[in-house]
C-alpha cells in the first residue's frame, strides 16, 4: 500500500500589530475560515484540531467549542514558538497512519492590546522560576542574552556581525506591505538602538504584537479538486534539551542539532537542496545558533554565513522573507507565520504581486521553530508537489 501523503493546502493570518477589534478567539476563527476557504474546504471537513497558547486551561477544547467543532483528533501540545511546526509534523503523522484527513492548526494572541485576557502574564514554571525569577532575571531575554555572551566569548563574534540578521530581515520587511517596520536599517542603527539586555539591543529583539494565523493540512486523497497548490510535508523532527536556561547543556548549541537532521533525513534531502529558510528569529542570536545547530555551517561561522546580505533579497540563502519576528510580527509565538510564509513562497504567490520578494524557482523550504529559553525546537521540510 502506498504511503499516505500530507500537505499544507490552506494558510491565512489576521491583522497584526495592534488589533483591539479582535480577541484571541476571533483571531483564530477569522484565520481558520480564510485558510479553509482558500483551499475550498469548510469546517465540516475538519476532523483534527491543533492549537497552543496560555489563554485557557485547555486551548484546544475551548477553541473546538468556539468553532462548533467535534474533531476526532486533538493536539494541544505547547512547546512555545515551535508548537506549530510540531503540529504540522504531528498532523502529517496522523494522516500517514490513516487517523485523519483534514487538520486545522491555529494560533491567536492579543499580547500587545490585552495581555491580561490573553494569558501572557508571568510564567510560573516551578522548575525554572525557583532559581531564576526570584532573583529578578528578566525572561526570556536574559536567557538569550546569556547565550549571546557565551557565543561571543567562545567564537569572537561581535554585535556588529550579529546585527546583519536584523538588517537583512528589515530588507525583506520593506517588501511586505503588512510589516509595520519598513524603514531600512544598517548595523550602525542596530548598535545605536537602546541596550535591552547585554549584548542584545532593541533592534536585536523581536516585535511585541497581536496576531493570529491558521494552517490547513490535508491528506493526498483530498488534494484533487482543491483550490490551492498543495505544499507537501516531506520531513519533520522535534527535540528538547532543557526547560530553564540554567540547565541548557551547551549555550551555543540548540535542539535544532537533533530536530534538523531528523527532518532532512525523513525528507531525503540535504542542506544544499534547500532553497528557502524560515528560521525563528525571536532575537538575532537565535538565528545564528539555529543555523549552526541545523548544520548549515560550522560552529562559530553563522555570522560569516549571513554576512554581505546573503540572507536578504537577492542573496544566495533567502531567509525570513516576510520580515520575520524582528520586523514583521511576533505575537508571543511566531512559528505559525513561518509556515504561512514558506507555503506562499513555494506556491510562488509573490511573483505577480512583488517579484523582489519572490524566491525564484523555490522548490524546497526548511521551516524551523524555537520555543522557550532556547529549549524546544521543531523542524519541517516542505516541498512543491
Automatic annotation (TrEMBL):
The GO molecular function terms of this record are: acyltransferase activity, transferring groups other than amino-acyl groups
Q: Name one Pfam family in it.
A: Thiolase_C_1
Q: Where is the Thiolase C-terminal domain?
A: 237-384
Which CDD domains does the annotation name?
SCP-x_thiolase
Which domain of life does the UniProt lineage start with? Answer: Bacteria
Which NCBIfam families does the UniProt entry name for this protein?
PRK06158.1
Instruction: Report the PANTHER family cross-referenced here.
Output: ACETYL-COA C-ACETYLTRANSFERASE (PTHR42870), NON-SPECIFIC LIPID-TRANSFER PROTEIN-LIKE 2 (PTHR42870:SF1)
For this entry, the protein name equals Acetyl-CoA acetyltransferase
Q: Which species is the source of this protein?
A: Saccharopolyspora spinosa
Amino acid at each position: 500500500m502506498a504511503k499516505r501523503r500530507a500537505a499544507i493546502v490552506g494558510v491565512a493570518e489576521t491583522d497584526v500589530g495592534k488589533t483591539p477589534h479582535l480577541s484571541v478567539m476571533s483571531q483564530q476563527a477569522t484565520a481558520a475560515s480564510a485558510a479553509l476557504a482558500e483551499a475550498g474546504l469548510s469546517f465540516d471537513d475538519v476532523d483534527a484540531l491543533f492549537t497552543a497558547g496560555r489563554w485557557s486551561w485547555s486551548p484546544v477544547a475551548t477553541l473546538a467549542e468556539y468553532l462548533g467543532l467535534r474533531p476526532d483528533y486533538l493536539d494541544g501540545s505547547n512547546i512555545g514558538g515551535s508548537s506549530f511546526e510540531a503540529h504540522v509534523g504531528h498532523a502529517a503523522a496522523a494522516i500517514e497512519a490513516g487517523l485523519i484527513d483534514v487538520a486545522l492548526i491555529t494560533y491567536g494572541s492579543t499580547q500587545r492590546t490585552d495581555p491580561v485576557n490573553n494569558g501572557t502574564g508571568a510564567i510560573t514554571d516551578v522548575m525554572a522560576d525557583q532559581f531564576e525569577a526570584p532573583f529578578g532575571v528578566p525572561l526570556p531575554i536574559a536567557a538569550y542574552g546569556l547565550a549571546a555572551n557565551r557565543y561571543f566569548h567562545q567564537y569572537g563574534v561581535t554585535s556588529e556581525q550579529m546585527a546583519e540578521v536584523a538588517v537583512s530581515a528589515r530588507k525583506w520587511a520593506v517588501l511586505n506591505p503588512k510589516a509595520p517596520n519598513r524603514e531600512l536599517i544598517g548595523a550602525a542603527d542596530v548598535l545605536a538602538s537602546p541596550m535591552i539586555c547585554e549584548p542584545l539591543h532593541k533592534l536585536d529583539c523581536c516585535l511585541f504584537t497581536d496576531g493570529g494565523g491558521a494552517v490547513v493540512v490535508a491528506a493526498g486523497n483530498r488534494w484533487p479538486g482543491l483550490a490551492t497548490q498543495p505544499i507537501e510535508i516531506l520531513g519533520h523532527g522535534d527535540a528538547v534539551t532543557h526547560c530553564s536556561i540554567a540547565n541548557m547543556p551547551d549555550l551555543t548549541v540548540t535542539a535544532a542539532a537533533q530536530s534538523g537532521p531528523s527532518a532532512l533525513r525523513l525528507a531525503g534531502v540535504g542542506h544544499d537542496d534547500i532553497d528557502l529558510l524560515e528560521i525563528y528569529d525571536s532575537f538575532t542570536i537565535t538565528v545564528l545558533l539555529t543555523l549552526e545547530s541545523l548544520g548549515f555551517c560550522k560552529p562559530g561561522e553563522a555570522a560569516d554565513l549571513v554576512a554581505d546580505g546573503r540572507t536578504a533579497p537577492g542573496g544566495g540563502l533567502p531567509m525570513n522573507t516576510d520580515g520575520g519576528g524582528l520586523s514583521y510580527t511576533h505575537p508571543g509565538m511566531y512559528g505559525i507565520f513561518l509556515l504561512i510564509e514558506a507555503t506562499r513562497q513555494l506556491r510562488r504567490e509573490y511573483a505577480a504581486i512583488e517579484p523582489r520578494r519572490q524566491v525564484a524557482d523555490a522548490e524546497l523550504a526548511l521551516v524551523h521553530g524555537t520555543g522557550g529559553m532556547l529549549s524546544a525546537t521543531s523542524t519541517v521540510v516542505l516541498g512543491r508537489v
